[in-house]
Structure formats: structure tokens, C-alpha cells
Design brief:
205 residues; alpha+beta; Umud Fragment, subunit A; 9-stranded mixed sheet; 4-stranded antiparallel sheet; disordered C terminus; Peptidase_S26; serine-type endopeptidase activity; signal peptidase activity
């Protein structure tokens, strides 16, 4: 006489619960990455010395739903229309320098906003080019790399529309010996009267 097959309802329920938890976790993680924050890595030296090649960053994707980018923010953005025409596909990261309506110029190794020179302690070297003056359009931003003489940025291809901005760098979590909370760094480059605080891993230029 053959032995009957005994089914364990508890085991079946356990597997279903585990699958449900895994599914909900995946949905939650996808939601976080899509709407709240994501990790990115740096493949180029355009933001040196602040950001080094292979640095890993957390990008805050939600704060700009409630506030506007500020001078000094390191923003991650999709290629602008001009960059897309040049066949760029990866996101970029640069520092916000000019806000909507401001006049920006680069001359004699200094950046000027509304004719006031910025104090920029974070740049690799003084810019060796002249640029502007230009007026930043509404709903757009002028961005520059901290490695001024080795950065493909607004002084080449123009402004970043607000709708192309993905978010801002808030934390460097790798390497551990260079862990940095960028929200706690005081940015000294503001114009007078505007002093401010400061996928799988996707690449940003």
C-alpha cells in the first residue's frame, strides 16, 4: 500500500508570504529609486577636486518638488536638447552658479554674478577662459564644473532647463574615507546677500 502524499498548508502559506514580501520590497525599492533618491557614480574628473572619479553619491530626487535649485547645489540633470543633439545620453553633474534672471560672466580668472565676484574655494584652478556676460533665462540655470578648465558645461552649451534636472547630490557614501554630507557644507560662493547652506549605480559626467 503506497504512502499518501501529505501536503503542509503552513509551508505553502509561508512561500506565498515570502513571495509577497519580496514583491512588495521590489516595488518599494523601485519607487524609492524612481521618486525619492538613487545612487550614482562619477566617471570623469569634471567636478574635481570636490568629486573624484569613482565616487559614489546619493542623489535627492524629491526636494526640488518643493523648492528651487540654489547656487552651490551640485545638480544631476539629463542631457539638454543641445547635448542630446550631440548624442549625449548619460546624465551630467555640475554646480549651480547662475539662477534665473541673473547675469553671469567669467573674466580674469573669476566668476561674476550680477557684477559681484564669487568666492569659490572648491575649484581646481581659476578659469582660463572668458565667457559672457549672459542673462540666465526663466526656469533655467547656468552650471559649471568645479574643474573649470576641464569641464564640458554651460560655458560651452548653454543653460539647463528646470525640467531636465533630476536632483541634487546630498551624500558621498564611497569611498568611506571621503564620506561627505553635502547638505552640511557651507557654500561661500553666493552673491552678496545670498549666503546659503549647502540605477544600479548610473554614471554621471
Amino acid at each position: 500500500m503506497s504512502n499518501p502524499i501529505i501536503h503542509n498548508p503552513a509551508r505553502g502559506n509561508m512561500w506565498r508570504e515570502n513571495l509577497k514580501v519580496l514583491g512588495l520590497s521590489a516595488i518599494f525599492a523601485l519607487g524609492i529609486r524612481t521618486f525619492v533618491a538613487e545612487a550614482r557614480y562619477i566617471p570623469s574628473g569634471s567636478m574635481e577636486p570636490t568629486l573624484q572619479i569613482n565616487d559614489r553619491l546619493i542623489i535627492d530626487k524629491i526636494s526640488y518638488d518643493f523648492s528651487s535649485p540654489r547656487r552651490g547645489d551640485m545638480v544631476v540633470f539629463n542631457p539638454t536638447r543641445t547635448l542630446r543633439q550631440e548624442k549625449f545620453h548619460d546624465a551630467f553633474i555640475k554646480r549651480v552658479i547662475g539662477l534665473p534672471g541673473e547675469t553671469v560672466a567669467v573674466r580674469n580668472g573669476r566668476v561674476y554674478v550680477n557684477d559681484s565676484a564669487l568666492t569659490e574655494t572648491y575649484i581646481a584652478a581659476k578659469p582660463d577662459y572668458r565667457f559672457g556676460p549672459v542673462v540666465v533665462p526663466a526656469n533655467s540655470y547656468l552650471v559649471l564644473g568645479d574643474n573649470r578648465n576641464n569641464s564640458y558645461d554651460s560655458h560651452y552649451w548653454g543653460f539647463v532647463p528646470r525640467h531636465d534636472i533630476i536632483g541634487r547630490a546630498v551624500l558621498r557614501f564611497w569611498p568611506l574615507n571621503r564620506l561627505a554630507d553635502f547638505d552640511r557644507i557651507v557654500y561661500l560662493g553666493s552673491a552678496p546677500g545670498q549666503s546659503q547652506n549647502r540605477e544600479t549605480l548610473s554614471r554621471i559626467k
